[in-house]
Design a protein that fits this description.
By secondary structure, this protein is an all-alpha fold. It has helices at about 25-50, 55-80, 90-105, 110-135, 140-160, 165-170, 190-200, 205-215, 220-240, 240-250, 255-260, 265-290, 300-310, 315-330, 335-360, 365-385, 390-395, 395-410; strands at about 185, 220. It has 18 helices and two strands.
Length: about 425
């Protein structure tokens, strides 16, 4: 991701690049990674006795926390695949929380959900006008949207929630009255059976049961919608002509225009969809997580969503894994956090030791030695303590964000024209 506002590259000879290649890792490789991670976590759970690591409650909480992060990351993916850096995701999420809370308590939560999406689209269009039409630096425009969204929602909250029927219904200048629930889905029979298996604490079997139980118990309908949006985004962007043209705008807009693609139109569509997805993430926080709009409700999830997108290498599958990881680390503080995070220190030791071995094998002695030293220090921390301080537990998702980005930075490949200024007619 870059804010460098250089001119778009000139037309290039057609070649097999990212716009034509299949997306991401193979399914078999992804399953191997997930299976290996599950096995490692199960071993750590047995050694440490921290049963919360794979419990139904932990997975359910992680899923709820991962959805807004994943939607923010998916919003960034749509925008940046068309070549527009969207730092304004946080502001668009804020607009979504306000729109959902404002309409949700007065009418139906479903109308509130739509209003949250609409407010996000509005923020996306403002960003598109600034960056695509007027050529404003993408970072500057995104930061401006974040500031404007925060100030506007604070003003509107004082205007609509601080007097009259809103106050009588429980509103105040920083909070909307509560809205009705959108509803949850539980698979009858299967949920109880998985919970029963989890309680036996069998190695790996109970871990799988706990994870599946969290997926099929009290799942919000918006969570199901988010999963469908991930699948739909992959299909549209990598399996349709519309997606190919949109991604070509992020790879080489000048060449795309020379082939008859209306680059402005595709960039506007991508950024509007990006705003709508971010608004949906904000609406999830307002209508599912808390059933009310709260000032400061997003808590930086728009930025974490961008980190998840980068971790996923601008692809839906990797993005989903990154959002799940960040949601899981965030959920630790809700589930006996100090003890559970302490157990994860042992997992971190194993990962650092494996990284050290790999770097030494690749003759990267400096990086391998540093990883080995870090593994020893974390092991000492684990052996000589029984619990992680609560202050550190609260910072766990942000620490995980930094670690993941630092470890994945070497394999990243963003769209070639991401953040570059494009002017209509350059391809003629």
């Amino acid at each position: 991701m870059t804010a460098t506002m250089t001119d778009a590259p000139p037309p290039a000879a057609p070649k097999a690049d990212d716009a034509a290649q299949p997306s991401g890792r193979s399914l078999a490789r992804i399953l191997m990674i997930v299976g290996g991670a599950l096995l490692l976590v199960a071993v750590v759970r047995v050694i440490t006795g921290a049963d919360q690591l794979t419990s139904e409650g932990q997975v359910s909480a992680a899923l709820g926390l991962a959805v807004p992060i994943g939607l923010a990351g998916l919003a960034g993916l749509w925008s940046e695949r068309a070549g527009v850096v969207n730092i304004g995701l946080e502001g668009m999420m804020i607009l979504g929380t306000f729109g959902a809370g404002w309409i949700g308590w007065q009418s139906s939560p479903w109308l509130g959900l739509l209003c949250g999406i609409g407010f996000g689209v509005l923020g996306g269009l403002v960003h598109a006008v600034a960056t695509v039409t007027f050529g404003v630096d993408h970072i500057v425009s995104g930061v401006a949207i974040n500031l404007l969204a925060l100030g506007a929602t604070q003003y509107l909250a004082k205007l609509f929630f601080a007097e009259g029927p809103a106050v009588e219904a429980g509103g105040n200048p920083k909070q909307s009255p509560p809205a009705e629930s959108l509803g949850d889905v539980t698979v009858p029979g299967l949920s109880d059976a998985l919970h029963s298996v989890e309680q036996h604490h069998w190695f790996l079997i109970s871990d799988i049961a706990g994870i599946l139980g969290g997926i099929v118990t009290d799942v919000s309908v918006v969570t199901i919608l988010a999963v469908l949006l991930f699948v739909g985004s992959w299909w549209v962007l990598w399996r349709t002509s519309f997606g190919l043209r949109l991604r070509s705008c992020g790879e080489n807009p000048v060449a795309a225009e020379s082939l008859g693609v209306n680059v402005y139109q595709y960039k506007y569509a991508a950024v509007a969809i990006s705003g709508g997805l971010a608004g949906l993430g904000g609406a999830f926080l307002a209508l599912v997580t808390s059933h009310t709009y709260l000032e400061g409700q997003t808590g930086g999830r728009g930025y974490i969503g961008l980190a998840a997108m980068i971790f996923g290498n601008w692809r839906p599958g990797g993005l989903a894994m990154g959002a799940g990881l960040f949601g899981y680390s965030d959920a630790l503080q809700l589930r006996n956090g100090g003890v559970t995070v302490h157990a994860l220190l042992l997992l971190l030791v194993v990962l650092l030791a494996a990284l050290a071995g790999w770097k030494l094998y690749r003759k990267a002695f400096w990086q391998g030695g540093l990883s080995a030293v870090m593994a020893v220090l974390v092991l000492a921390w684990y052996l000589f303590t029984d619990e992680v301080p609560s202050d550190f537990v609260g910072a766990t998702p942000y620490v995980v964000t930094l670690l993941v980005l630092s470890l994945s930075a070497q394999r990243l490949r963003m769209p070639k024209a991401d953040g570059m200024r494009y002017r209509k007619g350059q391809g003629k």
